[in-house]
Sequence to fold (419 residues):
Amino acid sequence: MTGKLMIAGGRPLRGTITISGAKNSAVALIPAAILAETSVVLDNLPRISDVGIYEEILTELGAVVTWDEDSMRIDPSSMKSIPMPNGNVKKLRASYYLMGAMLGRFGEATIGLPGGCNFEPRPIDQHIKGFEALGAEVSNEGGSIRIRARELRGAKIYLDVVSVGATINIMLAASRAKGITLIENAAKEPEIIDVATLLNSMGAKIKGAGTETIRIEGVDSMRGCRHSIIPDRIQAGSYMIAAAATRGDVLVDNVIPKHLEALTAKLQEMGVHIYEMDEAIRVVGQPEYESVDVKALVYPGFATDLQSPMTSLLTQAKGVSILSDFVYNNRFKHVPELVRMGAKIKVEGRSAVIEGGVLNAAKVKATDLRAGASLFIAGLTVPEGVTEITGTEYIYRGYENLVPNLRGLGAEIWVGEEE
Ligand code: EPU
Fold:
């Protein structure tokens, strides 16, 4: 789906929203299937454009991919090692997982440097450091990363930066290395546990995923299995924030409440009423909110991917809030767009200083996925007029069925033709 998003805001969101599988798990689990010799079935996949692009990439590599509702069957038995310098790999940031997966299965990979949401330079030096430690030779050939190893050997790898992508990429390659790999200072995000769970079901021997030390004992071969993807905590968090921002009452269903603890705590500090159940969270908005300070950190801290949506909610609080991002240096491309909508926000270094007030309708542009989320949330709060959001291709990368979902919650949102 393309076209601009049109929103006549000012209506409280009410009802139930069911959250799909996690995008950032899906884009790692699909390439992980390359390591198996028989079919892997992934259940609860989100129908988002990133998943569609990965399906095309795997098909180009010779895998047979079939769908049954929200389950994808990947038969990797006839896959070949083909260089992928251009094309679909450039459309997707997470195409970097092809490096670890193909290195593990074929001992080589040539992959064009990834595209996707480029809100700031996002280096992959820690991924490369990991592959080299495992015995691979890595070179940059005209914008493609070429990786080769006669034999992958387990190693001790200390990550200089806590990186989700590097942690997963090293787990993928090390699963097929000889001997034991230790990843120190590993990322602890729930998506890492999800990938380790799949790899272990495929026959890998991984311990410690979700802690800062992950131990991987390499195995000679891996087999297919069936795996259900965890719910998308960022999609869930975005709907929680939208419910609060519109002073609505929404049950966000199919979530793991623990994955959202940092957000829940901040919403409560602002005065939002939250009711946690086993697999759902009810968010009840209030007429007035207190300003709060938020620091985006690695998991289990407040998620950087919810930083931009949270900016929009903080425009609805009384007084001045400070929102800082310690994961990325400058992930504030949504701020000038929110300012066009009348928000009073100043960016100072790693922080946005946000003064509460009413927003107005405007024509704005999403420049990356979560910037887009901040704009549709802001648009939902605007009491008069129609907000127009272009750049929606970014938003559809991460939010399954966004328009029908929001309409189901009572929002007046529709798709207009892009000029
Ligand atoms: N970094 C390095 N060197 C590296 C790797 C990362 O300096 O080799 C830096 C990055 O520049 C960044 C920080 O380390 O400042 C953390 O980056 P990380 O590697 O953890 O990010 P990522 O794996 O590329 C994933 C998510 C992002 C999310 C981050 C942080 C996927 C496909 N993407 O990216 O999600 O922001 O972790 O939690 O899993 C999104 O969903 O909108 C999104 C951007």
User: Anything to note?
Assistant: The chain has two domains: 4-20+231-416, 23-228. The radius of gyration is 21 Å. The pocket of EPU is lined by residues 24, 27, 93-94, 117, 122-127, 161, 163-166, 187, 234, 304-305, 327-328, 369-370, 398 (CB under 6 Å). The mean pLDDT is 96.
